[in-house]
Design goal:
Blueprint lengths: L1 H12 L4 E2 L2 H4 L16 E3 L4 H14 L3 E4 L18 E4 L6 E5 L4 E5 L4 H9 L3 E2 L12 H6 L7 H4 L6 E7 L5 E4 L12 H5 L8 E8 L1 E2 L3 E9 L2 H15 L3 E8 H10 L13 E9 L3 H17 L5 E4 L3 H12 L1 H8 L6 E3 L5 H15 L4 E7 L4 E7 L6 H5 L2 H14 L15 H7 L2 H14 L12
Parallel strand pairs: 2-4, 3-4
Antiparallel strand pairs: 1-2, 5-6, 6-10, 7-11, 8-9, 8-10, 12-14, 12-15, 13-14, 13-17, 16-18, 17-18
Helix pairs in contact: 1-3, 8-10, 9-12, 13-15
């Protein structure tokens, strides 16, 4: 049966784009973090939506599970197959066209395989901004961004991927094409099918194209790194910055002293803005459609007030684009510094912003009681309530040995998240990694509705099986 299926796939996309040799498939089977490798019957690489539709029809006919895949930068095993070897990987990497840009409507229509950075660059050529910004933007794709409802550093001002998408083109599990590529900001004509597929992680259909929302390209931005004592001070600074800067406040990133110590250790050439350590740091960025003077003036006034009120202990305001880039490098190298330091237990969580300081204090204490000497690496997008709350082993404890405690650590962290009214996944998704955790924290009513939607749209259960549900 599999040979007949594969022969049909070769007829659809051409023999070079049906990969079956182990060496050819290997790059498509590894988890981004290098901790898991799946198996596949084949890797299929369609060139356009029609080929995707034909391949999905073939999968439905032969009952072959399929795993949609973009840039493979996910962190929850959502875009890699399991170890059974029965599924095919459907890689959209060849579908990377910018189909059209409407600068007046401020929209861009792109293939799902477009790399995020290429989309940003194409928008900029038309004096527009596509504001989704992630550390992996040089390799992640629009389809993956939408399938996981990606967030990033500019959610505070512009929203996450869901809010930056006006329409979709989707191949259903039956191989039909739904063309919802409408660049409309208002369309109240029934159920919002678009939002069903955004964040569904490929379990309901294959996103093949999208209409993205563009914004005016800011004239200038201003950046500052502010040193504080506690997360509570960071919340006070956020309120102050929002009151004084309004919609110009684009990014508000929290980093603990542990984070910057890691960066300084593993990337010693990066800037060292302060002569002495502080408990917490916040990276603020303002963007203005007026002028650089407008942005820098607002930022300097806000920082001056924070220092005068004792909210902030010290601050560095970037005086050039190069200095701004240097401050952002500190934030963007945290994950890389963690990787160089060794393995850790990661959590991508969200909380009501007002409860974040209490959550950090209470959860830090519980973890330190349970695992004395544990190192807590806390950073994230404080402006939208998203923390990357990572737990590294105590000094002298082997990383692989500490990872055996992952279930116990997750239980403490996720129970705390639940008790504070938060979510166990803010921007990474559920995938296979958090599937069982979802069953623990979602109500039976929510899970029942999700399963009903899955059964209605994908009755054969071939779309990214084992993910989310």
């Amino acid at each position: 049966m599999s040979e007949e299926f594969l022969s049909h796939c070769r007829h659809i996309v051409g023999e070079p784009f049906v990969l079956v040799a182990a060496a050819d498939m290997a790059p498509f089977l590894d988890d981004w973090r290098g901790r898991y490798t799946g198996k596949a019957l084949a890797v299929l690489r369609p060139a356009d939506t029609e080929q995707v539709a034909q391949l999905v029809k073939a999968c439905a006919h032969w009952r072959i599970p399929l795993v949609p895949q973009g840039g493979r930068t996910g962190l929850v095993l959502g875009s890699v197959p399991d170890e059974s070897g029965t599924a095919v990987v459907l890689s959209l990497s060849r579908m990377n066209r910018v189909r059209s840009i409407d600068a007046v409507n401020r929209t861009m229509t792109v293939d799902a395989g477009c790399i995020l950075q290429h989309v940003q660059d194409a928008a900029a050529l038309h004096d527009c901004l596509y504001p989704l910004s992630l550390a992996s933007e040089g390799s992640c794709t629009v389809g993956g961004n939408l399938s996981t409802n990606a967030g990033g550093t500019a959610v505070l001002r512009y929203g996450n991927a869901r809010e930056l998408c006006l329409g979709l083109e989707v191949v259903t599990p039956q191989g039909e094409v739904w063309n919802g590529l409408r660049g409309l900001r208002k369309d109240n004509t029934g159920y919002d099918l678009r939002d069903l597929f955004i964040g569904a992680e490929g379990t309901l259909g294959v996103i093949t194209a999208a209409v993205l929302k563009l914004h005016p390209l800011p004239k200038a931005s201003a950046t500052a790194l502010v040193a504080l004592a506690t997360p509570r001070d960071a919340l006070d600074l956020l309120t102050l910055a929002q009151d004084r800067c309004g919609a110009c406040l684009t990014a508000f990133e929290l980093m603990s002293d542990v984070c910057l110590d890691l960066v300084a250790t593993h990337f010693p050439d990066l800037p060292k803005p302060f002569s002495r350590p502080h408990g917490q740091y916040v990276l603020l960025e303002l963007s203005s459609c007026e002028s650089g003077e407008h942005a820098s003036g607002m930022l300097e006034q806000a920082v001056a007030v924070a220092l005068d009120r004792g909210v902030a202990r010290d601050a560095v305001v970037a005086m050039s684009a190069a200095q701004s880039r240097g401050l952002w490098d500190l934030r963007e190298h945290i994950s890389m510094a963690q990787a160089k330091a060794g393995k850790n237990i990661k959590h991508d969580i969200s909380l009501p912003i007002s409860r974040i300081a209490r959550f950090i204090a209470a959860t830090d204490a519980k973890l330190r009681d349970a695992f004395p000497g544990v190192v807590l690496v806390t950073f994230g997008h404080l402006g939208d309530g998203n923390l990357h709350y990572n737990v590294a082993p105590p000094a002298g404890v082997a990383h692989d040995e500490f990872l055996r405690n992952q279930e116990a650590v997750n239980r403490i962290v996720h129970d705390q998240v639940d008790s504070f009214g938060g979510s166990i996944s803010a921007e990474h998704g559920i995938g296979a990694l958090k599937r069982d955790e979802l069953n623990r924290y979602k109500s039976p009513v929510e899970l029942g509705m999700m399963r009903a939607i899955k059964a209605a749209l994908d009755p054969l259960g071939i779309m990214n099986p084992g993910k989310v549900l």
